[in-house]
Amino acid sequence: MPISTVVISANPVLKWEQFSKTLDRSEITRPVIEHRDMGGYYRFTFGIHPDFTSRTLASDFLINGAMRHVEVYNDKGLLDWEGYIGKVEERTGTTRSEMDLNNVFNRQWVRYNDAGAIERSTKFNDTDSQARIGITERARIGGEISLEVCNQYIQQLMTWTSYPSPQTRQIDLAGKIRGGGKNPTPELMFTCYGYWHTLFKRVYNQTAVSGDVAASVLIAAIITDVGQFVASTDIQDNITQLEQEADTDRYPGELITSITAVGDGGLNKWIAGFEADRKFYYRQAAKPVR
Hints:
This protein is of the alpha+beta class. It folds into 3 domains: 3-101 and 164-193, no CATH class; 105-161; 205-284, Phage tail protein beta-alpha-beta fold (3-Layer(bab) Sandwich). The chain is built from 5 helices and 20 strands. The strands form 4 sheets. Strands 1, 2, 3, 4, 5, 6, 7, 12, 13, 16, 19 and 20 form a 12-stranded mixed β-sheet that branches. Strands 8, 9, 10 and 11 form a 4-stranded mixed β-sheet that branches. It has a two-stranded antiparallel ribbon with strand order 14-18. 32% of the residues are buried. The model has no long low-confidence stretch (mean pLDDT 92).
């Protein structure tokens, strides 16, 4: 169904600001919704027409827009998509600036080799960034180096990568400012991601217990531990036995993708993702019609 409105609001989990803006169809350019079996609400891209933007609005989204909640409604008033702002791009005619959450990590450490044994360096945190956008983790891979060098490396990286700051990506000296110099009307473009992508922001390790458990039990444990944006779950039983210990600094989204790929004893396909109201699902896929 055709898109009717896009509602942008403060993230319901983070709650650090009060914000709400509703865009009707005349204000929206180039909307594209993407749904996938693996992931559910996957991606949504759109722009705000220059006639409805301002330098103030652009600055606000570039500085504060990361992780704002997004809902897309069709012309029947029904929810078609839900997620968060992951990237904001401003085009003025002479410059192109962007804020991209994919380049932000506010908890980082190094896996390094210490005399043949794999060790982890100190974990460094940017708590201001974590309060603003949630926890985004990255385990860097090091060679046979010292703990001191690892910590120095991570502290340097944190300076540049731990906070969602806008960056100027392109300057066109021959270009013309949209709307004129006094009242510029930049074009704003947004890349929004479904909450499935938040499962690629945390790292899941579990070494307290070992042995095999049911696939559905393992997935429930992963979501409970690192599903920071999950509001509820629909996890169907799958008794396929899998090893529950994890100690390789993998993202939960990668682990869940691997688990679903195994399927079940009946050779059925399984899928996982997010649907409305940040509900995570893990279920048997519908069989294809032949």
